[in-house]
Amino acid sequence: MPDFPVVPGRPCAVAATLELVGDRWSLLIAREIMFGNRRFSQIARNTGAPRDRLAARLKSLVAEGILEKREYQATRFEYHLTESGRELLPLLVSLLAWGDRWAVAEPPMILEHHGHRVRPTTVCGDCGEPIDSGGLHWTPNTPGWSMAGPEA
Predict the structure, then answer these.
(1) For position 133, what pLDDT does the model report?
(2) DSSP assignments along 9-70, one per residue
(3) Is the Cβ–Cβ distance between 66 and 121 less than 8 Å?
(4) Below-70 pLDDT ranges, the chain
(5) Domains of the chain (ranges, CATH numbers)
(6) Which helix (H) or strand (E) holds 80?
(7) What pLDDT, on a 0 to 100 scale, did the predictor assign at position 55?
(8) Which pLDDT belongs to residue 75?
């Protein structure tokens, strides 16, 4: 596992995650690999990413342990999601649902689960209740930080 990214501002797993996969191309690459498009040419075609930027991003996702590169012919490679890469699925499903509601007039892709449209929700793994802002309590876990920011 690579070292965790150091990001400026509040110490936060959201910021660290965005440092790893927060650019447009990273999540589109993960989407394409989840769809079974594992070769560079397929990923380039389906993401629209410039080839040089795609090559650099694939290299960094491999270095970060999100993808692994596997040779399928001499000097030809495919990309596969690692365990951490596969765990991006709920994030992508949530982004898709948010985009269907707020970013497009008509969903360009339909996602179904056992024959019905997916409506993702986040639930607490302990009690099973849906997570919303009403039941959350945030506690800073980094010395020198409060909810208002860095302590003087």
Answers:
(1) 85
(2) SS--HHHHHHHHH-SHHHHHHHHHHHTT--BHHHHHHHH---HHHHHHHHHHHHHTTSEEEE
(3) no
(4) 1-3
(5) 13-86 (1.10.10.10), 89-136 (no CATH)
(6) strand 76-81
(7) 98
(8) 92
The model's pTM is 0.89
Distance CA(60)–CA(38), nearest Å, equals 16
- At residue 1, the pLDDT reads 47
Query: How many Å apart are CA 99 and CA 65, to the nearest integer?
Result: 27
90-94 own/partner pairs: CB under 8 Å, 24+ apart:
90/120, 91/27, 92/27, 92/30, 92/31, 92/34, 93/118, 93/120, 94/120, 94/122
DSSP, collapsed to helix, strand or coil, labels residue 83 as helix
